[in-house]
Specification:
With 465 residues, this protein is an all-alpha fold. The protein has 2 domains: 6-181, no CATH class; 184-464, no CATH class. Helices cover 68% and strands 0% of the residues. The chain contains 17 helices and no strands. The protein has helices spanning 6-21, 24-40, 47-66, 70-104, 122-137, 147-155, 168-176, 183-215, 224-255, 273-277, 282-296, 303-321, 325-344, 359-378, 382-394, 404-423, 434-451.
Length: 465
């Protein structure tokens, strides 16, 4: 079930009614059953994989907490991490490494390939589960005693497929001290669901048509303007697609009494690449920092070690996104930019100094650098990436791939983003006058009706990760 389909909203309505009309002691079971039903609506057999990882990590955390032996604790941690990374590695990376080995042996890339279907949301729920076991090992999180509670943490349907990656302390803090959402939270939750739907159908899916048409045959669409418009279309698509999903996830969780962390904070207004990664997929950035960058040593052992740690973190972060050298290059590209900014002493601009005359220059330069990175993220292969970059900077003028109304729509959303950055007006809608709230919801739904791409339900971009 896609979030942007009528079937899903019927499912959500049934879950909300069943949840709030049932005794409190039944509600966790209802949410768990709903989450498993949601997961099994894709490929039912993969529920066995989700259950297996749930059992392994639940048992490992309990084992770690029960023993004081360092060796036993480490063994339990290794078992848990091996299970998560082993299954993730097999389903997501086996064919990638098999193709590279075949290439080295001079054989066809398909020589060792297997027909593997990537389980839904495996990149997200494995990271979430690993963070829990690691936190128990670090004695930063008490082990969960009730297996139903832990199973719900891993499978909670609003963020099961594409995040945000929620920490155990955040989720169980809400679960064990659950309170019904107040009127403001209900209004904010509904608003986020509607906003996310509009982001997906009005912005992401419309610009996806442009990006898909361009990247499926880049050689057939030469030209500087053509390349830039195709790349910017993808940049718009992936932001509105992914932030739309997480807006809906956060909104649905809020309707059920759970408070998820913000995952996006207007990243295309960033004033540096460092600032961009404090605004883009913030739950992943936080995970990579706490469970990879800091354990590697962070910035505690000198400049060269810091640059190495930044590069390793971003290279692995790139590989996490997909089994392709393009994703590795994308990660390395961002790791290199982060290292250069650290070398030059460029930091995030304090909020009070953000809106200087120099800020637009920094924001535009950062946007251009991010768009260059998206080429590797979206292109079918490395050869296409190089071709697109060549066209972006040395090609003839070419023709715009975006239509005039799409350009105007993009500029209008940029204006709204700047106003939100300065005034935070959207966040105040839920506590404002009823007429303002109603007007905003009506306008968003009208935009979905008039501008939403409805020829087919396009999957969310991050479903493939």
């Amino acid at each position: 079930m896609l979030f942007n389909t009528p079937q899903f909203f019927v499912f959500l309505g049934v879950v909300l009614i069943a949840f709030y009309s049932s005794p409190r002691s039944w509600r966790r079971i209802i949410l768990l059953a709903a989450s498993y039903f949601f997961y099994m609506s894709w490929i039912p057999k993969f529920i066995l994989l989700l259950l297996a990882l749930t059992v392994i990590d639940y048992t490992a955390a309990r084992w770690i907490a029960r023993t004081e032996s360092p060796r036993s604790r480490k063994t339990a941690l290794i078992v848990s991490l091996s299970a998560n990374l082993g299954l993730l590695g097999f389903f997501k990376y086996y064919n990638f490494f098999a193709a590279n080995i075949a290439h080295l042996l001079g054989r066809p890339e398909s020589s060792f390939a297997l027909s593997i279907i990537l389980p839904l949301g495996i990149s997200f729920h494995t990271f979430q589960s690993m963070s829990y076991v690691i936190d128990v090992y670090r004695r930063e999180q008490k082990p969960i005693v009730n297996p139903v509670d832990y199973a719900l943490f891993i499978s909670f349907f609003p963020q099961l497929v594409a995040g945000p990656i929620v920490r155990a302390r955040e989720f169980f803090g809400d679960l064990y001290h659950w309170q019904a959402p107040n009127s403001t939270e209900v209004l904010r939750g509904l608003l986020l669901v509607i906003l996310g739907l509009a982001k997906k159908m009005v912005m992401a899916d419309q610009f996806a048509q442009v990006a898909n048409n361009y990247f499926k045959d880049v050689a057939g669409h030469p030209g500087l303007l053509t390349a830039w418009s195709g790349v910017v279309a993808f940049g718009i698509q992936i932001y509105f697609d992914f932030s739309g999903y997480t807006d809906m996830a956060i909104g649905m969780a809020l309707l059920l009494g759970f408070h998820f962390p913000v995952n996006f904070h207007r990243p295309y207004l960033a004033s540096s690449i460092t600032d961009f990664w404090h605004r883009w997929h913030m739950s992943l950035s936080r995970w990579l920092r706490d469970y990879l960058y800091i354990p590697l040593g962070g910035n505690r052992h000198g400049r060269l070690t810091t640059y190495r740690n930044l590069m390793l973190t971003m290279l692995l972060g790139g590989l996490w996104h997909g089994a392709s050298w393009n994703f590795v290059v994308w990660g390395g590209y961002h790791g290199g930019l982060l290292s250069i900014e650290r070398m030059l002493g460029l930091k995030r601009a304090p909020e009070e100094n953000r809106w200087t005359l120099f800020y637009p220059v920094r924001a535009i330069l950062t946007f251009v650098l991010v768009m260059i990175g998206w080429v590797f993220f979206r292109a079918i292969n490395f050869h296409d990436s190089i071709y697109v970059l060549h066209q972006m900077f040395t090609g003839h003028i070419g023709a715009m791939f975006l239509m005039r109304w799409q350009t105007d729509l993009a500029l209008f959303t940029l204006l709204l983003a700047v106003l939100e950055e300065k005034k935070a007006w959207f966040e105040r809608i839920a506590i404002g006058p009823a007429w303002a709230y109603g007007a905003v919801c009506a306008l968003l739904l009208l935009s979905v009706e008039l501008l939403g791409y409805t020829e087919a339900s396009l999957p969310f971009v991050y479903f493939q990760f």
